[in-house]
Specification:
Elements lengths: L6 H5 L7 H11 L4 E3 L2 H4 L18 E3 L4 H14 L3 E4 L16 E4 L6 E5 L4 E4 L6 H7 L4 E2 L12 H7 L6 H4 L6 E7 L5 E5 L11 H5 L8 E8 L1 E2 L3 E9 L2 H15 L5 E6 H11 L10 E9 L2 H17 L2 E7 L2 H12 L1 H8 L8 E2 L5 H15 L6 E3 L4 E2 L11 H21 L18 H4 L2 H14 L14
Parallel strand pairs: 2-4, 3-4
Antiparallel strand pairs: 1-2, 5-6, 6-10, 7-11, 8-9, 8-10, 12-14, 12-15, 13-14, 13-17, 16-18, 17-18
Helix pairs in contact: 2-4, 9-11, 9-14, 10-13, 14-15
Bound molecules: flavin-adenine dinucleotide (FAD).
The site of flavin-adenine dinucleotide has 37 residues, from strand 3, helix 6, strand 10 and helix 13.
Length: about 475
């Protein structure tokens, strides 16, 4: 069994970048694509979208390759010189995954942003990792197709980052998460080989399922340089319901009922408590009419024709009213739908502006346990004298509970108390059969909490896989677990 080392001890094994190594990298990717010795230019790559500064770390250098071959050469150089390499997409991550915790090289994928092939007949699109996710639908929609991956950050994040995090999002209730759509990958291994996995096949059981080992590996097992995604037929009709409830408990209790009693799997069931909706409306200068509501559900239904969608949303609306909803609003055109979804998409940003001292969490429980989870969060909020607004993908059991610093506390008090709040929150999640991340990943933000939800043998198994592929541990070290 590999011995666990502390980050400090492991840090000593990575070597500093010398002028000769920088010159070698400039030769590989071109001088203008290597950033070094300029703190102002390097700083944006020292963090992702986590607001807490303690998770940031400066890189020594940022390289911007344009091809798999260049990345392969960088990985060979990194192994030869013992330098840490951290792959980075758009930096919209929420677990510190793209943060170079041991310095070294940040490998930025922004120049690899092309669509390689749109294959309408096979319903696939082959892209480079630096393509902004939303662009896929712009390209395939005119052909009557769509890509079902829908993280709320889709206007900024990259496809490579989505694959590395196995991103979920707003359509996962019906369509599932990113992994379901990844048919093929080209991967540069930590040792610098270029490997093709899968292809355009819908079925493939030839050997181990390495694609699904790579998906969600958070940039620790390989760097994706080509991604083949499955597309779906574009639904011809779609309607959103904004459903108001008096209390979060009532809204949350309605979620499993909607699916079991109406017999319909909606495309999305998003939950926002009053604090979250209010923060996003204020941030956007929006005025959603949420009256006396203590919480709301945003439910999407899509399908092949308007009549079927109407039948479904009427059935769901009735079910919500039976589950104590106080109002059901129907958004059946793009402008109104976009208004309510914009509020939902901007909650995280709104909280960040409101208070930088907060911790956006990503807990997930079996859907039938969501009411107990929400009640438990309310209890934790009282126990720790700290607001914990809550929103998220309720239909998946995935809640972004967000402890926000009590303004009476000092930064040190916040730091100390947050630790206890998170331990309590994660223990409660585990006791309900849940875990600490549904879509944002572990990165280095949640690494120390892994033993609360994972058996030691599970962590050892992951470490063994990591060391088999990356014996020097040069690719994104310090993430998920120590190696
Ligand atoms: C406002 C907001 C809303 C969000 N909503 C959602 C949501 O609904 N669902 C969701 O799942 N996430 C969400 N996120 C989190 C984030 O957008 C996702 O995790 C996204 O997938 C990260 O993509 P990125 O390109 O920004 O990756 P980065 O943050 O740059 O990197 C994330 C991880 O991917 C690795 N990586 C990046 N590129 C590659 C590559 N080519 N090969 C191998 N590894 C690579 C990095 O090393 C890192 O570990 C949200 C974030 C914000 C700020």
């Amino acid at each position: 069994m590999a011995k666990k080392k502390t980050e400090k001890a492991a840090a000593t094994k990575y070597k500093p970048l010398t002028p000769a190594i920088i010159a070698e990298m400039e030769k590989i990717v071109g001088r203008q694509y290597v950033i070094h010795s300029d703190a102002e230019k390097l700083e944006p790559f020292s963090h992702d979208e986590i607001s807490e500064k303690e998770y940031a770390h400066m890189p020594d250098c940022v390289v911007r390759p344009a091809a798999a071959q260049e990345i392969a050469e960088i990985m060979k150089l990194a192994n030869r010189e013992m330098i840490a390499v951290t792959p980075r997409g758009a930096g919209s991550g929420l677990s510190g995954g793209a943060v170079p915790v041991f310095g070294g090289i940040v490998l930025l994928c922004d120049r690899m942003n092309k669509v390689i092939e749109f294959d309408k007949a096979n319903m696939t699109i082959t892209v480079e990792p630096g393509l902004v996710t939303n662009e896929i639908n712009e390209i395939v929609r005119p052909a009557g197709l769509f890509y079902a991956g829908y993280p709320m950050s889709l206007e900024t994040c990259y496809v490579g980052g989505n694959v590395a995090e196995n991103a979920g999002g707003g359509k996962a209730v019906k369509y599932g998460v990113t992994a379901r759509y990844v048919l093929g990958l080209e991967v540069v291994t930590p040792k610098g080989d270029i490997v093709q996995l899968g292809g355009k096949l819908v079925k493939d059981v030839t050997g181990y399922d390495l694609i699904h080992l790579m998906v969600g590996s958070e940039g620790t097992l390989g760097i994706f340089t080509k991604i083949i995604l499955k597309l779906m037929p574009l639904p011809k009709a779609s309607v959103d319901l904004l459903v108001l409830f008096r209390t979060p408990d009532e809204a949350i209790a309605a979620v499993p009922e909607i699916m079991t009693k109406s017999g319909i799997i909606p495309t999305a069931i998003e939950f926002m408590d009053r604090l979250s909706a209010h923060a996003a409306c204020k941030y956007l200068n929006e005025t959603l009419d949420y009256k006396d509501a203590g919480a709301m559900l945003l439910i999407t239904v899509d399908g092949p024709d308007e009549q079927q969608v109407m039948q479904q949303y009427e059935a769901i609306g009735e079910q919500c009213l039976a589950a104590k909803a106080i109002e059901v609003y129907v958004a059946d055109n793009h402008t109104t739908s976009e208004r309510v979804w914009k509020v939902r998409r901007n909650i995280a940003e709104a909280f960040k502006v409101q208070s930088p001292r907060q911790s956006l969490e990503d807990i997930v429980v079996p859907i039938a346990s969501i009411p107990k989870m929400v009640a438990g969060l309310e209890e934790l909020s009282r126990k720790h004298d700290c607001q914990i607004p809550c929103y998220g993908h309720a239909g998946d059991g995935n809640l972004h509970a967000t402890p926000v610093m009590n303004p009476k506390w000092s930064d040190q008090q916040w730091h100390d108390r947050l630790e206890q709040i998170l331990v309590d929150m994660y223990k409660l999640t585990a006791s309900l059969g849940g875990t600490i991340s549904g879509e944002h990943g572990i990165g280095h933000k949640r690494k120390k909490y892994m033993p609360l939800v994972c058996q030691a043998a599970f962590i050892d198994m992951m470490r063994a896989i990591k060391l088999a592929l990356d014996p020097n541990c040069v690719l994104n070290p310090g993430k998920i677990f120590d190696c």
